[in-house]
Design a protein that fits this description.
By secondary structure, the protein is of the alpha/beta class. Helix content is 47%, strand content 16%.
């Protein structure tokens, strides 16, 4: 064997290509009075594997606006003992964008998960707005390499966008969502009655998302929104429900047909988010992304028109 043959043998590489796919399937349910004992939406999610140990956590703003929420959660669990078993009374934590600033809240949830001995057969039931669900989702995704998470979004924007996707995270190094994961939820259940407890400004923040999605994906939806604009501006619940569900369906359809884990370019439905995130970062969180991005969207469009593109 010559010297060249020896060198070739020593440098020989052995490459194994591993390839597999994991299908994801989770329900996105819209209902009313989710914790009424007669409402089986939540219990049905657990029935195949019940009684499932559940740790329930809630955004403090939601708990304050919905007096008796903790009692309602407890009463529901008592009425559906064959489906779920509460590990403790409802834990209430700070919500809003500030809950995502740094890892403090995530660390607090990890301690709770450890204290109550959660495992991958347990479920975290998170009740709150988009920022709270982002933070809680990251905590669940990084405990035991992934706890099951049921999201119960309570704001317009969370119910038609932020609460139904696969992204979680928190803000770090002064950047929005710098730390995060892609982790699909176990289920999403939206109680439309929570919308009636929102400040009007927060309710309207989610309307802009529907307009953007309609412009990008569905001309018929845009015409519907235009025709119902006065009722939507008045936050009439029937029209809000139709808007939220149709907007959410378009988001879900887009994720299923495209790139849910964003391995390529960012989703078209994230259009306008980058500049709104930048402004929110620059303002230290004082300027909410939900309220800023529609103006940034209009700014981007007007700039493109001026450039003739």
């Amino acid at each position: 064997m010559g010297q060249d043959d020896v060198r070739h043998k020593e440098n020989r590489e052995r490459v194994f290509w591993q390839e597999f796919s994991v299908p994801w399937r989770f329900p996105v349910i819209y209902t009313r009075n989710v914790f009424a004992p007669a409402n089986n939406a939540l219990a049905t999610v657990f029935q195949a594997a019940g009684p499932v140990p559940v740790l329930a956590i809630a955004d403090s703003g939601v708990a304050e606006a919905n007096d008796g929420l903790a009692d309602a959660v407890q009463a529901y669990a008592s009425s559906h003992r064959s489906a779920l078993r509460l590990l403790s009374p409802l834990h209430v934590l700070p919500g809003g964008e500030k809950c995502k600033n740094g890892s403090a809240q995530v660390d607090r949830l990890h301690r709770l998960f450890h204290k109550h001995k959660l495992c991958r057969h347990s479920v975290v039931l998170a009740i709150g707005g988009g920022a709270f669900l982002d933070m809680a989702g990251y905590a669940a995704a990084t405990a035991h390499r992934g706890l099951r998470l049921i999201r119960l979004p309570t704001t317009t924007l969370a119910q038609n966008d932020a609460g139904i996707g696969v992204k979680n995270g928190y803000n770090s190094f002064g950047r929005k969502n710098w730390v995060g994961t892609f982790a699909p939820p176990f289920a999403v259940i939206s109680d439309l009655n929570f919308l009636s407890t929102l400040p009007k400004r927060e309710s309207r923040a989610g309307l802009a998302e529907a307009v953007k999605v309609a412009v990008i994906k569905d001309a018929g939806f845009f015409q519907l929104l235009s025709g119902q604009r006065k009722k939507l501006a008045a936050l009439e619940l029937q029209q809000m429900e139709e808007m939220i569900i149709r907007c959410a369906a378009l988001h879900l359809e887009h994720m299923a047909a495209g790139d849910p884990f964003e391995q390529g370019s960012a989703r078209p439905l994230d259009f306008g988010h980058w500049s709104a995130h930048a402004l929110e970062e620059a303002s230290g969180g004082r300027s909410s992304m939900a309220r800023r991005w529609p103006w940034e969207w209009l700014w981007i469009v007007s700039m493109q028109q001026k450039k003739g593109s």
